[in-house]
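Q: Got a minute? One more chain.
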Amino acid sequence: MGDNIYILIFYSVIAIFIMVTFFLVLYIRNQNMLWQQRRLFQETEILQQKQLLSAVIESQEIERKRIGEDLHDEIGGTLSAIKLMLGALKQQDGVNQDSVLPAKQLIDKMIVDVRNIAHDLSPPGLTMFGLYTTIEGFVSLINNTGEIEVVITHDPQIEERLLSDKAELALFRIITQLIANTLKHANATRIEICFKPTDQKMEINYSDNGKGFDPVVLNAKQGIGMQNIKSRLQMIDANYTLTTSLNNGFKMDIICPIDRVN
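A: Always. Here it is, folded:
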């Protein structure tokens, strides 16, 4: 009788152990399913956000291009016509030449300003010549001011277009925004931009020798410019690291996957 009780207890313990194990496995399985569903939902949400962001930025670029073309063709054409009229007026007898010349100089400046704004809104050389040539042209305008030195290097020398039009446009906007931030906030005398292409990725190193930022303050108070930079990086699946501190300049390293030209 005693042996039967021990056997009964033994099998009861085994049965309870099997039941606990079964429910534990079932619980773990359900948790894994919930985790996979949550991860899938997050991935879907991130993809939708990226698609929405891409659509918003693309619509902005379309509008930029339209406004740039209107500025260049209509406003630029009108200013050129006014310049010709002033030139013709200058040839007439009895006209005060000293009063015409300042107006003509002002028109010349307005034509240059409108052309620069139009090119910034819709860089005409980007599609034809690519990112590097367009950036070099943009940088040459800044170097001509004599206020700051911008140096571009290639390691190795870039001889072909490696990125899609979408990636090149995004990186052009990012680099020009970084330059604008340096000019506005850094009190720097030198900017260095280095392109380092490989078979799989394009690395871009941007740095200035300005006053830098407190990283805590920079993360807490990001301006629209920096937010736009991060949005464009996200849109093209690019990663970045940002290094800065007070009185030690600013540096951003960007790694963009190579997706080749469209």
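A: The domain at 123-262 is CATH 3.30.565.10 (Heat Shock Protein 90).
Q: Perfect, thanks.
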